[in-house]
Amino acid sequence: MLRIHDVSKSYHNQTAIKNINFEILCNEFVCLIGESGSGKSTTAELIMGIQFPTSGVIEKEHCCTIQYIYQNPERSFNPYWTMEKSLMEPLLLKKEQLDSSKRRILELMEMANLSSELLQRTPSQCSGGQKQRLAIIRALLMNPKLLIADEITSALDPESEKMIINLLKKFQVEFHMSVLYITHRIQSVSNVADRIMVLKEGTIVETGSPSQIINQPKHPYTKKLIEASYYFENKRLKGLGQPRQA
């Protein structure tokens, strides 16, 4: 569905992405993992066409419609509109029928365990987890074949993060689409990913199944990410920090 061939991206003589190669197959849940500044968001923006590669080729099948979910869900919504108006906007632009559009929104909200009462609220009246689920719904209303989720749980506590990831997996299976999930927390995707790619300083240093990557990491950088993930998980289990509302 999507193929990346020897793609590089440079800014003012500084290379952000270095000759990366990978593909995303139909109905596949792929995770791109790396620290801040490793090039994850640049990779996503290259796939979206927000940026263009300095060299290399990005091949997309004709049917590969893509939607992007931002790290900050505020970017998906007008702060002065109700959530219903924000969700309806892309459907009305496509000239979809009003009644069928509302039914579709309510069906997705039920799948996401969200009350229909949220539709009459503005973004400031919703929690972070609610806004992120609504942002996922807004993207799904466009019937994408590939959904890119860029660090969408970074501001949430681990329980809310798990809920969002499981919801993405549920939608991925239900609607026969692919997901590129971008994160720096390698443990969070162990139960949902089909494949994990590890990105370090703009280069993919390791690729494999969750079992291979987590239980038998080959690259020192991957081992470092796993150790950091365990460290922060242990801190959470010891009761450090207060969970945020989902």
Structural class by secondary-structure content: alpha/beta
| Strand order in the largest sheet | 5-6-7-3-8-9
Radius of gyration: 18 Å
SSE run? EEEHEEHHHEHEEEHH
Which range best describes the helical content: under 10%, 10-25%, 25-40%, 40-55%, 55-70% or over 70%?
25-40%
**Biggest beta sheet summary:** 6 strands, mixed
Low-confidence segments, given as residue ranges, are: none
Straight-line N-to-C gap: 33 Å
What's the β-strand tally?
9
> Overall 3D geometry?
globular
Beta-strand residue percentage: 15-25%
Mean pLDDT: 90
Number of helices: 7
Fill in the keyword field for this structure.
single chain, 246 residues, alpha/beta, 3-stranded antiparallel sheet
Description:
The protein is of the alpha/beta class and 246 residues long. The protein has 7 helices and 9 strands. The protein has helices spanning 40-48, 83-93, 98-111, 128-140, 158-174, 210-215, 220-237, and strands at residues 2-11, 14-24, 29-33, 55-60, 66-69, 146-150, 178-183, 195-200, 203-208. A 6-stranded mixed beta sheet has the order 5-6-7-3-8-9, sandwiched between helices. A 3-stranded antiparallel beta sheet has the order 2-1-4, covered by helices on one side. A hairpin with a 2-residue loop joins strand 1 (2-11) and strand 2 (14-24). Helix 2 packs across helix 3 and helix 4 packs parallel to helix 5. It is globular and about 50 Å long. The protein starts with a strand and ends in a 9-residue tail after the last helix. The model has no long low-confidence stretch (mean pLDDT 90).
